[in-house]
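Please discuss these two lines.
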Amino acid sequence: MGSWHSLNLLFDRVPIKEAIMLVAGSDTLRLPASAAGLRFHKAALIVLPLVLLLAGCASKPQPAAKVTLALVDRGLFDKEFRDLRDQQYKEFTAQTGIEVKLLPGPESAVEQLKLWQKLLGNGPETLQVQPDVFGIDVIWPGILAGDLLDLKPYVGQDIAAHFPELVANLTVDGRLVALPSRLDVGLLYYRTDLLRRYGYNDPPRTWDELETMAARIQKGERAAGNKDFWGFVWQGAISEALTCDAIEWQASNGGGNIIDPTGKVTVNNEHAIRAWERAARWVGSISPSGVTTYKESDASNIWRAGEAAFMRNWSGAYAVSNSEGSAIQGKHGVTLLPRGRTGAAEVFGGDGYAVSRRSAHPKEAVALVRYLCGRRSQTLQAKVLSTPPTMPDLYNDPELLRASPHIREIRDAVGHGLVARPSTVTGEKYTSVSAAFSTAVHSVLVHEKTGAAAAAELERRLMQIIGTRSASGSQEPSRTARPPHADR
């Protein structure tokens, strides 16, 4: 019998301690009765301690490798945001042992999207860093869906806790590509002191009332010596902000969205045209001529300086309005946007967290997403950053409502006029759709085109972009589509 075969049998018949003792001895060793019949050459046994040592090392439990997740986020990286995130990451690490590394990103949403696409592998560059978790805008799911993990199998029990409108917006072709973390809604800000001064008990409920009240307060304040005072500021620059404002105008007046959920272009209709032309009349009357260059921060600057009676902006402007240096601290309120002929329409924004399909640690990444989108994290965010949560039951939290009173208005908006931009149905083409829409509306605001001409031209342009039918039944192929027989 060969020595190596006998060595294997020895492990079965002799206790390990006794086997190790057999190293010393003659070339042919006398074994215990339990190993009778086995013969070994001493050379074979010289390696026995090493074999047993290695076996012991292999069987000894090894400490798990430390996991560090890389995350790219969309927040404004001010001190409050960084402090909050540091607190959350430390808590998550204490609970799970998983470290989190926050990677910096650009401030502009357009630049963020370009970088996110590169980080997800959609570029020629070989990347040194591949993030595991991505903070994404609510208009990005259709653009990034192919590179994101379907979270539904992992977070099924969490889905029902969020507003269904937000979950639907983050679902592409049945795949939940992100979990909601923050809700944002277009709101009307108003000066409480000025409403009292001019005899108004309540903010305007309709666009007609807004025009009347804004004009009267503006006239009175200018007569009192404030020559730079305006009735209403909003976002009129060619941008995503104008896309949101204009959808709110037209949807509340029966003009619908830009593109319906089936992919049909619906924007060329009389109600949308009238809504755009009404806004054009505001420019230079109750709104500054420069409003056609304003984005969110520009409108907010006029508002915080105390030079406007009303402002349309996102829910995040509430904290800015009360910040140090604001001329309107304690002098403002917030309510839903005015109603039109068919009701209210608040375009919603916000964020979610997604997991890259290329993540080396998908389970750990999902755990971080669940934590950041969970009840405790959202409550903390609402209190510290005044960001509305995505969970309906949190809007009944007395402590949260005391810290952020404006959240009551957002609670009323949900289910009574939330409008999603057509980003999911248009997918990767949404940025082109939005740019075409805001450009067309802007041409009306600055009186370059009539509403009817702009809407007709926009309809044709949108059909070229997405290659679909319009509400009028006409159809044009996408310019990027292959011509017939191009492959022959």
About this structure: Residues 186-348+421-466 form a domain with the D-Maltodextrin-Binding Protein; domain 2 fold (CATH 3.40.190.10).
